[in-house]
């Protein structure tokens, strides 16, 4: 009797976990669709989504959660990512000319080979951010400690 009960409990817990994952994925996909159609997704939960190569010119992504998202090769020209969470996001080879990253979390983000001309990064957290091969000028990038 105990083995049957344990098997049933394990099966039910697995099924309940499987039901919650597609629900979250469906919510993320609805927000991705909204972003791609309207370029407005302020405060959206886009954790781990694949936006590689996406054309997000002038997109409003203020305070969006893009933790672990793949934005490789995306066009973020003029986009507003103020306060966004881009922790561990893949931003390799993005076009981020004129993009606002003010107060964004770029901890461990990969910005290698990115085009960052005129990017704004006031107050951004950039601990462990990979900027190797990144190209940019007129960037308000502060180096060092306190004021």
UniProtKB/TrEMBL annotation:
Name the InterPro entries for this protein: 5peptide_repeat, Pentapeptide-BTB/POZ_domain
| Keyword tags | Signal
Cleavable signal peptide: 1-25
Give one Pfam family: Pentapeptide
Q: What is this protein called?
A: Pentapeptide repeat-containing protein
Q: What is the lineage of its organism?
A: Bacteria, Bacillati, Cyanobacteriota, Cyanophyceae, Nostocales
């Amino acid at each position: 009797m105990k083995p049957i009960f344990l098997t049933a409990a394990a099966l039910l817990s697995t099924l309940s976990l499987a039901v919650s994952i597609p629900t979250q994925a469906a919510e993320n996909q609805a927000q991705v669709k909204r972003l791609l159609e309207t370029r407005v997704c302020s405060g959206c939960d886009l954790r781990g989504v694949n936006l590689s190569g996406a054309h997000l010119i002038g997109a409003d992504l203020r305070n969006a959660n893009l933790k672990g998202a793949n934005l490789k090769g995306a066009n973020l020209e003029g986009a507003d990512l103020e306060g966004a969470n881009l922790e561990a996001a893949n931003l390799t080879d993005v076009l981020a000319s004129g993009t606002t990253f003010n107060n964004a979390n770029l901890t461990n983000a990969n910005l290698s080979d990115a085009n960052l001309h005129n990017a704004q990064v006031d107050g951004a957290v950039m601990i462990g951010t990979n900027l190797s091969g990144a190209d940019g000028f007129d960037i308000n990038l502060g180096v060092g400690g306190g004021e």
